[in-house]
C-alpha cells in the first residue's frame, strides 16, 4: 500500500515538474515574442544613442538570446532564487509572499461562496422542495454569470457609496467609518458570484444530484425513513465539488486580476497586471509558477478526495 | 576683449525663511495628516532611478537639489546658498548651506550634507552601470569637483542657456548605498531612501501606502503637516471615488471627466496648473499621401478642435497653433490656430489630386483605392477621453471624404510601431517639455532613426537650420526670435495636427490651506501647506 502511494506521489511530482517546465517555457516564449521591452522603464530611450541603449540592455541581461535567458532563469530557480523585479528591484519571492496570501484569501473565500450558492440552488431545485426559491436562485445565478465581473464591481462600488455610504475599497492606513473592517467581504462577494461560473457550477451539481437521487440506495434510504442528507452528501456533493474546485481554480485566479484592480486589493492579480504592462519577466514568471502550482495542487486535492471517498478509484 | 562678468546671485526668499530645525514664523499651526491618491504604485522611491510621475513626485517630498524653482519657474536657491558662474559660462561654483542634515535613520542619521555628497551623486548618475533617465540630461557635465567641504564646482562641457536650471538634480547620500559608485534598482535604498526633503519615509505598508513624517529639522523650517501618505490606486474611477469618500484628501491630477463633479462638491478646492505639454496627431511623412502638404493642412481644417476640447475636456485648455506649449516663452502668439473649415479642407484635397469619390463617399487615390489612413492609438492608463477624441477625429475626416481606420495598441506595442518600426500613418500622443522648449529632436532631419523623436520622418532644411541656430545661441531673446520663426514655419507645414494643451487640476480638501503648486515639481512648496487645528482631528481617526 505504502509503496503504491509512493509511486503515485513520484508520478505526480514528475508530471507536475514537467507541467511547470512547459508552462514557464511558454510564458517565456510569449514574453520574448511580445513587442516592447523593459528598457524604457529604466531610461528615456529617445535621448540615448543606439549604442547606449544596447549598453543598458546588456546591463539588464536583455541582450542574451531567449534560450540562454531561460536557461539562466531555470538554473537560478533550481537554487531557489526567483530573481528581482525589473520594475522595483525588490526580490520576486518577497513580492509573491506579500501579495500571494491576499489573493489566496480572496479567491479561496470567493470559491467557497460560489460553491455555497451553487450547492444551495442545486439542492433546492434537484429535490424540488421549494420550487419558487429554487427558480429565483437559478435565475439570479444565470443573471450574475452573464454580467462581466468588472462591471459588477463598479456597480457594487456605486451602490455602496451612494446608497449605503460606505467605500468598499481596500485601504491600508486610514480606516474611516465603522464598517471598514468588513469591506473585504465586498470583493469576495463580487468575485464569488460574478466570476461567470455560478450558473455552470449549479447546473453541473444539479445534474449530478438528480442522477444520484434516482439511485437505488437513495430510494432504500427514503423507504426506511433515514435522513437523506447523510446518504447523499458523499456522492452528491463531495465528489462533484472536488472536481469543480479543481476545474474552476483557473477562472478564479483570472477573475481575481480584475477584481483586485477595481477594489484596489493589493494582491497577486494586480502585481501580474502591472508586471505584464512593464514586461517585468521575473515577476511574471514567478506568478506563473505560483499559479500553476496552485492549479496543480487543486487537481491533486481532487484526486486525493475522490480516492478517500471511493477507494475503488485508486486501483 | 570679452568683458569679465561674474554673476553672483544671492539666495532669494527661501534662504530668508526660517533656519533649519526651527518652527516657521508664518504663524500657521502644525499637525494633521494629508492622504493623497495616485494612479499606480511608484516603482522606486529614490531620485536616481525614478522614471514614473508617481515616483518622481514622491522624491520631491523626500529629497532636495542645489537649486529649485519658484511658482513662475525661476531658478531659486535650495541646498545651495549662493553661486557663481565663470565668465565663459561653463563653471558653476555653488556655496552650500551648512545646516542641511540627512534624515535621521540608518547609517546616515543626522550627518551633515557636504560637497562630497553632490560630487558622489553626479558621479553616480554618470557611472556607466547606473541605469537612470538622468544619464542623457547630465551628459553635459564634464567634471564635478569638491572645492571645500561647503563648496562644489560643476564644469559643463559647453555653455548652455539656463545651465543653472539644468543642475537641479536631487542629492543622495552615496555613503548609504550598497555600492557607492553606481546605483542599481535592487539596492534596498531604492525602497528605503534617506534624503533631505521636507518629509522622511516612515514605512511602505504591504498595501503599498507610502507613509512619510515631517522632517523636524528641515532647512526651510519644519513642515506644518505632520504626516503625508501616498495611497496608490489601480483604477482611475475608483481614485476619484476615494476622494469623494474621504478616503483621500487630494488627487494630483483629476480625471478630465470627473472635474465637474468635484468642482460642484463644496468640500474640495480645485487648483488648476499648466504643464508645458500638448496633444497632437503625428503624420507619417513616409506615407505618399501625407507627404503632400495640402493633405496635412486639409486634415487640420477638417477637424473642429475647439468643439472637441469643449465637449471632451469641458473647454479646460487651449487650442494651439504650433510646436510649443502655449505657456512657454517660445510660443508665437501671432500665429493663430487654423480654423475649422471643411470646405477649405475639400479644396485643399482636390488641389492635392483627390477629387473623385468612390461609391462609399470616400475620395479616391490615383490608383482608384479610397484615401485612407491608419491611426494608431495607445491604450495607456485606460484613458477614455482619448478614445472619444479619436472617434470624433474619424468622424470629422469622414465628412471630407478621408477614411481613418482606428487601431488601438497596447502601450509597448504602440511604442514599437511608432518609435521603432515607423509603422503607422497617423498617431496620437502628447509631448511634455521642460523650460528649455527644445524641439530639436522632434523635427531635425538627423533624428529619424529607431527610437528617435522625429518618428514622422520630417525633413525641412530651413527648419534644420533654425534648430541648429537656436541650439547654439546663448542669448534668450535671440532664441525666442528663432523659435517664433520655427513656430510659424511648422504651423504652415503641419507635420503634426497640433491639437491643444489641457489644464491639469489638482483636487484638494478644503481643510488644507496655503496651497502653492509648482506646475512641474508639484510638491515644491508642500512645507508651507497647513491644516487648521480644528480640522486636523477629522483626518486622524
In short:
The complex is a heterodimer of chains A (315) and B (541). Chain A has 315 residues and is an all-alpha fold.
What does this structure look like?
The complex is a heterodimer of chains A (315) and B (541). By secondary structure, chain A is mainly alpha-helical. Helix content of chain A is 75%, strand content 0%. Chain A has 13 helices and no strands. Chain A has helices at residues 2-33, 39-42, 50-60, 66-78, 92-127, 131-146, 149-163, 185-194, 198-213, 216-223, 228-262, 268-278, 281-309. In chain A, α1 runs antiparallel to α13 (281-309), α7 runs antiparallel to α8 and α8 crosses α11. The longest helix of chain A is centred in the middle third of the chain and has 36 residues, at 92-127. Chain A starts with a helix and ends in a 6-residue tail after the last helix. The model of chain A is unreliable at 173-177 (pLDDT under 50). By secondary structure, chain B is of the alpha+beta class. Chain B has 2 domains: 4-202 and 216-256 and 505-530, 3-Layer(aba) Sandwich (D-Maltodextrin-Binding Protein, domain 2), CATH 3.40.190; 278-502, Dipeptide-binding Protein, domain 3. Chain B has a 7-stranded mixed beta sheet with strand order 9-10-11-2-12-20-13, sandwiched between helices. Chain B is globular. The termini of chain B are far apart. The model of chain B is unreliable at 1-20 (pLDDT under 50). Classes of the chains: A mainly alpha (315), B alpha+beta (541).
Amino acid at each position: 500500500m505504502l509503496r503504491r502511494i509512493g509511486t503515485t506521489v513520484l508520478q505526480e511530482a514528475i508530471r507536475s515538474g514537467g507541467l511547470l517546465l512547459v508552462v514557464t517555457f511558454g510564458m517565456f516564449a510569449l514574453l520574448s515574442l511580445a513587442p516592447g521591452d523593459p528598457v524604457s522603464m529604466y531610461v528615456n530611450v529617445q535621448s540615448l544613442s543606439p549604442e547606449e541603449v544596447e549598453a543598458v540592455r546588456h546591463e539588464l541581461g536583455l541582450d542574451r538570446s531567449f534560450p540562454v535567458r531561460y536557461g539562466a532563469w531555470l538554473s537560478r530557480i533550481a537554487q531557489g532564487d526567483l530573481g528581482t523585479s525589473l520594475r522595483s528591484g525588490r526580490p520576486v519571492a518577497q513580492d509573491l509572499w506579500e501579495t500571494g496570501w491576499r489573493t489566496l484569501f480572496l479567491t479561496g473565500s470567493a470559491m467557497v461562496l460560489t460553491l455555497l450558492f451553487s450547492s444551495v440552488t442545486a439542492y433546492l431545485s434537484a429535490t424540488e422542495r421549494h420550487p419558487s426559491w429554487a427558480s429565483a436562485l437559478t435565475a439570479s445565478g444565470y443573471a450574475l454569470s452573464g454580467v462581466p465581473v468588472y462591471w459588477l464591481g463598479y456597480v457594487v462600488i456605486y451602490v455602496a457609496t451612494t446608497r449605503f455610504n460606505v467605500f468598499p475599497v481596500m485601504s491600508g492606513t486610514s480606516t474611516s467609518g465603522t464598517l471598514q473592517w468588513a469591506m473585504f467581504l465586498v470583493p469576495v462577494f463580487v468575485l464569488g458570484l460574478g466570476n461567470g461560473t455560478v450558473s455552470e457550477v449549479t447546473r453541473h451539481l444539479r445534474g449530478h444530484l438528480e442522477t444520484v437521487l434516482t439511485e437505488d440506495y437513495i430510494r432504500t434510504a427514503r423507504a426506511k425513513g433515514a435522513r437523506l442528507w447523510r446518504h447523499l452528501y458523499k456522492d452528491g456533493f463531495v465528489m462533484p465539488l472536488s472536481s469543480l474546485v479543481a476545474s474552476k481554480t483557473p477562472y478564479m485566479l483570472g477573475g481575481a486580476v480584475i477584481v483586485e484592480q477595481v477594489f484596489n486589493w493589493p494582491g497577486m492579480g494586480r502585481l501580474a497586471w502591472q508586471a505584464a504592462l512593464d514586461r517585468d519577466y521575473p515577476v511574471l514568471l514567478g506568478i506563473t509558477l505560483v499559479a500553476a502550482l496552485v492549479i496543480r495542487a487543486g487537481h491533486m486535492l481532487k484526486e486525493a478526495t475522490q480516492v478517500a471517498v471511493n477507494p475503488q478509484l485508486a486501483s | 576683449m570679452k568683458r569679465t562678468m561674474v554673476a553672483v546671485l544671492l539666495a532669494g526668499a527661501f534662504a530668508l525663511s526660517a533656519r533649519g530645525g526651527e518652527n516657521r514664523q508664518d504663524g500657521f499651526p502644525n499637525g494633521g495628516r494629508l492622504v493623497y491618491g495616485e494612479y499606480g504604485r511608484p516603482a522606486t522611491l529614490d531620485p536616481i532611478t525614478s522614471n514614473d510621475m508617481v515616483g518622481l513626485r514622491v522624491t520631491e517630498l523626500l529629497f532636495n537639489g542645489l537649486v529649485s524653482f519658484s511658482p513662475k519657474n525661476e531658478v531659486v536657491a535650495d541646498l545651495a546658498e549662493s553661486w557663481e558662474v565663470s565668465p565663459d559660462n561653463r563653471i558653476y561654483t555653488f556655496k552650500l548651506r551648512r545646516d542641511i542634515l540627512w534624515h535621521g535613520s540608518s547609517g546616515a542619521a543626522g550627518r551633515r550634507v557636504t560637497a562630497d555628497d553632490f560630487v558622489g551623486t553626479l558621479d553616480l548618475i554618470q557611472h556607466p552601470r547606473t541605469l537612470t533617465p538622468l544619464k542623457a540630461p547630465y551628459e553635459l557635465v564634464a567634471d564635478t569637483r569638491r572645492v571645500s567641504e561647503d563648496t562644489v564646482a560643476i564644469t559643463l562641457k559647453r555653455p548652455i542657456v539656463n545651465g543653472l536650471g539644468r543642475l537641479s538634480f536631487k542629492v543622495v547620500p552615496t555613503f548609504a548605498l550598497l555600492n557607492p559608485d553606481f546605483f542599481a534598482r535592487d539596492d534596498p535604498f531604492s525602497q528605503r531612501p534617506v534624503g533631505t526633503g521636507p518629509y522622511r519615509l516612515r514605512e511602505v505598508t504591504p498595501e503599498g501606502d507610502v507613509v512619510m513624517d515631517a522632517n523636524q529639522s528641515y532647512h526651510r523650517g519644519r513642515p506644518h503637516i505632520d504626516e503625508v501618505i501616498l495611497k496608490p490606486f489601480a483604477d482611475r474611477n475608483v481614485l476619484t471615488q476615494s476622494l469623494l469618500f474621504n478616503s483621500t484628501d487630494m488627487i494630483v491630477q483629476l480625471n478630465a471627466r470627473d472635474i465637474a463633479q468635484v468642482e460642484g462638491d463644496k468640500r474640495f478646492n480645485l487648483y488648476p496648473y499648466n504643464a508645458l505639454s500638448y496633444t497632437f496627431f503625428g503624420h507619417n511623412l513616409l506615407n505618399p499621401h501625407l507627404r503632400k502638404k495640402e493633405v496635412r493642412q486639409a486634415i487640420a481644417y477638417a477637424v473642429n478642435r475647439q468643439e472637441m476640447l469643449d465637449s471632451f475636456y469641458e473647454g479646460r485648455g487651449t487650442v494651439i497653433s504650433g510646436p510649443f506649449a502655449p505657456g512657454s516663452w517660445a510660443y508665437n502668439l501671432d500665429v493663430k490656430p487654423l480654423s475649422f473649415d471643411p470646405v477649405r479642407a475639400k479644396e485643399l484635397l482636390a488641389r492635392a489630386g483627390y477629387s473623385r469619390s468612390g461609391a462609399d463617399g470616400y475620395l479616391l487615390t490615383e490608383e482608384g483605392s479610397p484615401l485612407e489612413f491608419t491611426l494608431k492609438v495607445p491604450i495607456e492608463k485606460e484613458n477614455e477621453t482619448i478614445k472619444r477624441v479619436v472617434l470624433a477625429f474619424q468622424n470629422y475626416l469622414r465628412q471630407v471624404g478621408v477614411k481613418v481606420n482606428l487601431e488601438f495598441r497596447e502601450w509597448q506595442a504602440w511604442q514599437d510601431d511608432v518609435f521603432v518600426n515607423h509603422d503607422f500613418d497617423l498617431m496620437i500622443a502628447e509631448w511634455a517639455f521642460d523650460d528649455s522648449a527644445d524641439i530639436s529632436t522632434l523635427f531635425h532631419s538627423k533624428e529619424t532613426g529607431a527610437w528617435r523623436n522625429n518618428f514622422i520622418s520630417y525633413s525641412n532644411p530651413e527648419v534644420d537650420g533654425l534648430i541648429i541656430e537656436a541650439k547654439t545661441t546663448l542669448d534668450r531673446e535671440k532664441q525666442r526670435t528663432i523659435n517664433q520663426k520655427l513656430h510659424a514655419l511648422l504651423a504652415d507645414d503641419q507635420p503634426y495636427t497640433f491639437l491643444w494643451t489641457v489644464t491639469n487640476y489638482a483636487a484638494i480638501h478644503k481643510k488644507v490651506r496655503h496651497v502653492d503648486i509648482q506646475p512641474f515639481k508639484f510638491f515644491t512648496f508642500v512645507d508651507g501647506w497647513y491644516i487648521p487645528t480644528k480640522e486636523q482631528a477629522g483626518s486622524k481617526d
